[in-house]
Amino acid sequence: MEKDFWQGVKDALPTALGYISIGLACGVVASPYLSPLEMALMSVLVYAGAAQFAMISLIAAHSSILNMALTVCLINLRNMLMSLHTSSDFKDASLA
Questions:
Q1: Are the beta carbons of 20 and 43 closer than 8 angstroms?
Q2: Cβ contact 60:30 at 8 Å
Q3: What does the alpha-carbon distance between residue 51 and residue 53 come to, in Å, rounded to a whole number?
Q4: Alpha-carbon gap, residue 47 to 52, rounded angstroms
Q5: What is the rounded CA–CA span in Å between residue 87 and residue 33?
Q6: Please, which of 16, 51, 57, 63 could form a disulfide with 67 given CB 3.0 to 4.6 Å?
Q7: Eight-state DSSP code of residue 32
Q8: More confident position, 3 or 13
Q9: Would you state the pLDDT for residue 92?
Q10: Could you tell me which of 25, 34, 82 has the C-alpha nearest to residue 59?
Q11: Burial class, 13, CB count within 10 angstroms (exposed 0-12 / middle 13-18 / buried 19+)
Q12: Angle, nearest 10°, between helix axes 49-60 and 2-30?
């Protein structure tokens, strides 16, 4: 079991390095508009990186909260469409 875990860590390392660079870029872009605490909260609460970049531009443009929420919902709509496709692959699997 422990061997499988470390193999997974090794396999995921290139992807993690890519996310680190994107996260740093997002932090640099957000630094004039958000505090480090606000950026950390956005990273924890907003799952889509594209939505984070969109929110930063909307914050910079002094957009309303409603516009930000609608934009994030529309960006995340793609996840619902992907899950609809994936649900057919797991139709025989239990939720547990």
A1: no
A2: no
A3: 5
A4: 8
A5: 39
A6: 63
A7: T
A8: 13
A9: 79
A10: 34
A11: exposed
A12: 10
Tokens read off for 57: 């531009």
Is 37 a residue whose pLDDT tops 90? yes
Tokens of 54: 């969109």
Distance CA 8, CA 16 (A): 12
The pair of three-digit structure tokens given for residue 71, joined into one six-digit string? 């934009």
* Tokens matching residue 24: 């740093």
Distances 25 to 39, 42, 58, 81, 84 between C-alpha atoms, Å: 12, 14, 17, 28, 31
Task: Give the pLDDT score at 23.
Answer: 87
Q: How many CA atoms lie within 13 A of 24 on its CB side?
A: 6
The runs of H, that is alpha helices, within 31-95 are 36-45, 49-60, 65-87
One-letter amino acid of 90: F
What is the pLDDT at residue 79?
Answer: 83
Say yes or no to pLDDT of 96 above 80: no
